[in-house]
Amino acid sequence: MSAAEIPYTTGLHELAPGVHAWLAPDGSWGLSNAGLVSGDGESLLIDTLYDLNLTRTMLAAMAPITAAHPITHALNTHANGDHCYGNECLDPSVTIHAVTETAHEMEHEAPPEVMAALLSPPAAEALGPVLAGWLRRAFGAYEFTDITQRTPDETFDEQRTLTIGGRLVELRNLGPAHTGGDAVAWVPDAGVLFTGDLLFIGGAPIMWEGPVDNWLRACDEMIALSPELIVPGHGPVTDCDGVRAVQGYWRHLREQARQWHAKGLSWMEAALAVDLGEYAELGESERVAPNMYQLYRELDPDLSTVEPLGMLAAMAQWDAARGSRGSNATPPDGANG
Ligand SMILES: [Zn+2]
Fold first, then answer.
1. Are 276 and 257 contacting, i.e. CB atoms less than 8 angstroms apart?
2. Can you give the pLDDT at residue 134?
3. What is the mean predicted confidence (pLDDT) over 271-283?
């Protein structure tokens, strides 16, 4: 089966016997994919979703499979909420795995209470219309107020091999890149790779951590596995060409950063002046602001630190200045009740 044969529609798609992708078009802010790998009498879930409604909808769609092969293990590929905020929907007996740094970030960076607070009316007033409006467009469709974060049960640093009902699944940490820990799940007998947010297809990638060389190397490692089908964190099912496209984005942006840095522009001036070239059509283009900041940090270690809220403000400012479509986050049909 080729990637082009997998329709990009909301729901569960079988990629190989006992290997399914949960897809969430259009893959923009918060609309993340997930995976289910089933062996004899048990299953591994790869990522939960951004809120409880979305996660429960996905788990209900998986029920015909998980009735015979219940979820016994889960992986959070990384700490962004759209891959772990739904953890509490899993049965308490499920063992949740994550990279050690991911578990740390889940506890200390952007817990659901922070997202709920940012979207609350008093905060919107304090943040001003540009940032509050952008936050509402990107994240306003999700429900963060009722989430109790469940953190991972078992952590690993580099690699862990799971046996799921007799089936081998390799979990590998290819980060830091997108975040401080970025795990992929490789199902060798099916040739299917689940990458989390090391891959965005159709939307711009975003680098919260870096360095960019590590992201490029992570892409090389994915290609070296020779996967037939690749499930990105966001966007349609792809193959190694999708990995090369993400590498192309980073090489292009790294070159832009070098050029503008040499001309003396600040990182935000460079983000606003950037020529995105063939990548201009990618969704969520405002991610170029934090990306440029991270690339500048690599060029200039003394660059002052910008907190995550400052990154969100930079994206809102970029979107107001250069965004053509803005962001939109519409949950899948029926996902919110
Ligand atoms: Zn994501």
1. no
2. 96
3. 96
Segment 305-313 mean pLDDT: 94
Q: Which ranges of the chain does DSSP label H, i.e. alpha helix?
A: 52-66, 100-108, 112-118, 121-127, 129-139, 212-224, 240-262, 267-273, 288-299, 308-322
- Return d(Cα 201, Cα 79) in angstroms, integer: 19
Going from the Cα of 262 to the center of ligand 1, the distance in angstroms, rounded, reads 32
> Of 74, 91, 86, which is closest to residue 36 (Cα–Cα)?
74
Residue type, 309: L
pLDDT > 70? residue 90: yes
The model's pLDDT over 22-79, given as tens digits with 9 standing for 90+, comes to 999 999 999 999 999 999 999 999 999 999 999 999 999 999 999 999 999 999 999 9
Distance 264 CA to ligand 1 centre (A): 33
Q: Pick from 109, 243, 234: which is nearest to 174 by CA?
A: 243
pLDDT average, residue stretch 305-331: 79
**Per-residue tokens: 236:** 């349609």
> What's the topology of domain 3-322?
Metallo-beta-lactamase; Chain A (3.60.15)
Asked if 288 contacts 277 with a C-beta cutoff of 8 angstroms, the reply is no
- Label residue 324 by pLDDT band (50, 70, 90): low
Instruction: Report every protein residue that has its C-beta within 5 angstroms of ion ligand 1.
Output: 32, 80, 82, 197, 233
The burial of 7, by beta-carbon neighbours within 10 Å (0-12 exposed, 13-18 middle, 19 or more buried), is given as exposed
The structural domains of the chain, with segments of one domain joined by +, span 3-322
- Sign for the pseudo-dihedral over CA of 65, 69, 72, 78: negative
Tokens of 51: 């809120």
Q: Is 162 helix (H, G, I), strand (E, B) or coil?
A: strand
Q: Would you say residue 311 has pLDDT above 60?
A: yes
- How many angstroms is it from 180 CA to the middle of ligand 1? 14
